[in-house]
């Protein structure tokens, strides 16, 4: 692959978001130095910081920058002064929901990897979690979270709907991904009860023959919630609808031992956004204790999205080396921890010089 | 308490259901021998076996027997030949859903207890799970599982509805139970997104002042799925709607180390059904390896429901003794395991002779 120019909208956001983005950008710059690519960064406000500055959690200039970018890097959003104020009319999260909707980001993709260095931090026994390595595809713009909702005289309702096309497009992404991994896809649904789940299962069964190498299995969501704890190693690619994905992917995130290492991507037909799964963690802001690795691994996912596989692999290798060398922030290393900035610099240096 | 006569509808169901029911009935007979009560058993078909025999997972004669009984003992239902066929028009689960609805069994109650003998079998590290003791109240006849569902030209839909009254009646049961335990109640919902969840939260906030000793907190379901693994000891009574309860209670069930020990009750205004939480486990059918203890502890919950507290306590004592003596089926004791029948006989013998 030749040298490329990519435009990246950077939304550092709130709390520790700016700190972890700073380290992720160091790594991007190291990739640029080493491989010659040009990354044009367009830093914009979103979240509580955008409300403070403009009154709007997603200002028009931010949305415009995201439309014009090849990819978006997001830190984290949210601030207790809005979250804990029930009278607040405008909330940081509204910006994120509106951005996902505007960009048509229909698939949320989360890898969950059980790094050996985290085994002691996992709530699961080591033999259950060691070696687990899964990738969860969660539908992000349909289902009950986006359905019609309201009140009746004596109650309330929420409607869950899915169209065939909403399922087809994310199912293909998940199948394609499975072919590059261990060729296993698990659909999580509740097809014994829900009509939308039966549609999901039908669509997956119809698409499956196009991916003959992929073994497909089906788990009811309640069983999946059990299997995630009992035997997480059984999973390769998981595909599921919006609400089930919310629950199952959050459950999966804690078994690995630290939220601080888990990246994510949200993709649509024409846009892609990359962000750590952790929140804005306002208590840690400015203390240099935030773990930048989840955001750095989000950059690796972005590089893969750009087709820069060698570059992405090098970033992941740098992270593995950093974990091996015990260059860790305090939640993973209580004695003699490294700072956010030191961890970022160590990884960026490996990318630029080592490997 | 004097000698009572109770009519019990027994629905052995599918897979290992008949085997575990046989052992639970042995224990009931031992209680009868020792205390002089008369238990009139009316054994009926439900589930896949009922479809095979009559075409209907809940034949009229079964429903009638349940209406006439003082309580219902259920084994397990479900068969892969129906579950894995999206074209199947009649499903075993429909029988169970219809039975719950017909009897008005609106509350499913599941204790989850971390028995010390099971700590090594729990997927969680011992320090996370030891001492966990919770009771989950899951609404059982409302929500998306019972809402209108169907197909459109290009998709499918499921409607979730709740009335205020459906929430009020189970919320009172959960609050009352909390006052007999550790006075903590956690509502699991998704009130940041769903209107039905906002109604649940409103109702619980309105009822809470009637139970001033009970501390109430609120968890979003995705966070609850994480907290159940990270710190299950924080929970006392959990209250939640039908689908969230399905997922969270199944997740909770595996952290204790074995599904084979966990009973449940489903209660309504005038009817009550008792069943192990495990499924029909068709692979194990007829092998003598199914653990009958969950069904036997379900009988203990039934005896409590009949007001037979001494009898219920004796059955639980017999189970504790059995665990202490390591009289266990193979999933808990790989070397020299006992059979389903041996475990049942050991417990029944203790109830009749020992104690
Ligand atoms: Mg979530
Ligand atoms: Mg279930």
Give the helix/strand layout.
Two copies of one chain form a homodimer.
Chain A: E1 5-13, H1 17-35, E2 38-43, H2 48-54, H3 60-68, E3 71-76, H4 80-83, H5 92-103, E4 107-113, H6 126-129, E5 133-139, E6 149-151, E7 155-163, H7 164-179, E8 184-189, H8 195-207, E9 215-220, H9 221-230, E10 237-240, H10 242-255, E11 263-267, E12 272-276, H11 293-305, H12 309-324, H13 340-353
Helix pairs in contact in A: 1-11, 1-13, 7-8, 9-10, 11-12, 12-13
One magnesium ion binds at residues 246, 250 of chain B.
Largest sheet geometry of chain A: 10 strands, mixed
Rg of chain A (CA only): 20 Å
Approximately how much helix is present in the residues of chain A? 40-55%
> Beta-strand percentage of chain A?
15-25%
Structural class of chain A: alpha/beta
CATH 2nd-level architecture of the largest domain in chain A: 3-Layer(aba) Sandwich
- The CATH class of the largest domain in chain A is Alpha Beta
Name the assembly state.
homodimer
Number of domains of chain A: 2
How far is it from the N-terminal to the C-terminal residue of chain A, by CA?
19 Å
Number of helices of chain A: 13
């Amino acid at each position: 692959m030749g040298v490329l120019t990519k435009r990246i909208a950077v939304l550092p956001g709130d709390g520790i978001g700016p700190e972890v983005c700073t380290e992720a950008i160091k790594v991007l710059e190291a990739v640029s130095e080493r491989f010659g690519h040009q990354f044009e960064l367009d830093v914009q406000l979103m979240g509580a910081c955008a409300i403070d500055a403009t009154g709007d959690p997603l200002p028009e200039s931010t949305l415009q920058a995201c439309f014009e970018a090849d990819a978006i890097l997001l830190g984290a959003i949210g601030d207790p002064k809005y979250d804990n104020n029930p009278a607040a009319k405008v909330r940081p999260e509204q910006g994120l929901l509106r951005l996902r909707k505007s960009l048509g980001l229909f698939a949320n993709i989360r890898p969950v990897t059980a790094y050996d260095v985290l085994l002691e931090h996992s709530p699961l026994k080591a033999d259950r979690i060691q070696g687990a390595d899964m990738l969860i595809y969660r539908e992000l713009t349909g289902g009950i979270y986006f359905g019609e909702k309201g009140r009746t005289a004596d109650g309330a309702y929420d409607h869950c709907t899915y169209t065939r096309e909403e399922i087809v497009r994310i199912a293909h992404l998940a199948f394609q991904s499975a072919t590059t991994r261990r060729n296993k896809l698990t659909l999580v649904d509740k097809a014994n009860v829900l009509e939308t789940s039966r549609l999901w299962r039908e669509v997956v069964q119809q698409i499956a023959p196009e991916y003959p190498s992929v073994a497909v299995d089906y788990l009811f969501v309640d069983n999946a919630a059990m299997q995630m704890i009992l035997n997480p190693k059984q999973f390769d690619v998981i595909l599921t609808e919006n609400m089930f994905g919310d629950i199952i992917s959050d459950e999966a995130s804690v078994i690995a031992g630290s939220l601080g290492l888990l990246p994510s991507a949200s993709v649509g037909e024409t846009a892609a956004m990359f962000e750590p799964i952790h929140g804005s963690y306002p208590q840690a802001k400015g203390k240099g204790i935030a773990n930048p690795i989840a955001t750095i691994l989000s950059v690796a996912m972005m590089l893969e999205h750009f087709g820069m596989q060698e570059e992405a692999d090098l970033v992941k290798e740098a992270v593995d080396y950093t974990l091996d060398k015990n260059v860790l922030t305090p939640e993973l290393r209580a004695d003699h921890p490294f700072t956010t900035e030191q961890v970022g610099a160590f990884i960026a240096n490996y990318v630029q010089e080592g490997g």
